[in-house]
Amino acid sequence: MPTPSPALRPGDRVAIVCPARKVTHQELAASIAILTAWGLEVVLGTTLTAQHHQFAGPDELRRQDIQQQLDEPSIRAILCARGGYGTTRIIDQLDFSRFADNPKWIAGFSDITTLNCHLLALGHESIHGVMPLLFDQAGGEEALESLRRALFGEPVSYFAAQHPFNRVGSATGELIGGNLSLLQTITGTASDCALAGRILFIEDIDEYLYNIDRMMVHLDRTGKLAGLAGLLVGHFTDSNDNIIPFGQTPYEIIQTYAAKYDFPVAYGFPVGHEPLNMALICGRRSHMVVDETGVCLNYM
């Protein structure tokens, strides 16, 4: 079983870092105010004032910033400010030995999928959830509350309405997943995780339909779909097509490959690059039930 992190308490110190694309203090003002209202002391990483082309500073600066927060025992959670691209460039240079002795929550999604999976490969839970850049987005209040509840160790359950592609059934297993593109990118690396016996959740944004198909082919060819306990399909936002249409929607593409197996599947799950992006604890043993009304997911 992956190691859970201690629940936050009022007065705890939490750090905001930026391991990928750059961000400004102005863009984080709302999140700082919200975290403070939760009773937390906010520590700002050096990457929040840095920039190097698209990145929040050069690779070494971003590595140093997150390493400092991993090693600092007074920091009880690390929130990744935003995604974009860049985490895979520094993940292999991070040292998690002190973190293992003093685990803490690490939260983020999108490009941070690499970090979520890397932590699970090392035997630690983390949170796939809304990031500080998006704390004040319209319609995101429920997602933000789910993140707060996850951080503070409060009970939570999730429900999504019935979808015609759903396959009924129930499954129990550890949650794993995130951005489909990143799940493919980390295949064969130290951040890769076994999917057998686990409940996989996937989402993506701004991908060409043919590339979604290619990534699903890759998951299938590597045998990772065959051993799943269950599959949760989240938002596939702003998908693109070629001049000659691919001929299928993202859900139709995924259904093509999921149909080869008999595990339960639920589409339209509230996770991904939309305001309704509910916090999921990667590595947490969970139970999903798909029936005629929809899907319900609960932690064990």
From TrEMBL:
Residues 172-286 form the LD-carboxypeptidase C-terminal domain. GO terms for biological process: proteolysis. Gene3D superfamilies: Class I glutamine amidotransferase-like, LD-carboxypeptidase A C-terminal domain-like. Keywords: Carboxypeptidase, Hydrolase, Protease, Serine protease. Coiled coil: none annotated. Residues 14-129 form the LD-carboxypeptidase N-terminal domain. SUPFAM superfamilies: Class I glutamine amidotransferase-like, LD-carboxypeptidase A C-terminal domain-like. The active site is at S110 (nucleophile), E203 (charge relay system), H273 (charge relay system). GO terms for molecular function: carboxypeptidase activity; serine-type peptidase activity. Belongs to the peptidase S66 family. This is Peptidase U61 LD-carboxypeptidase A.
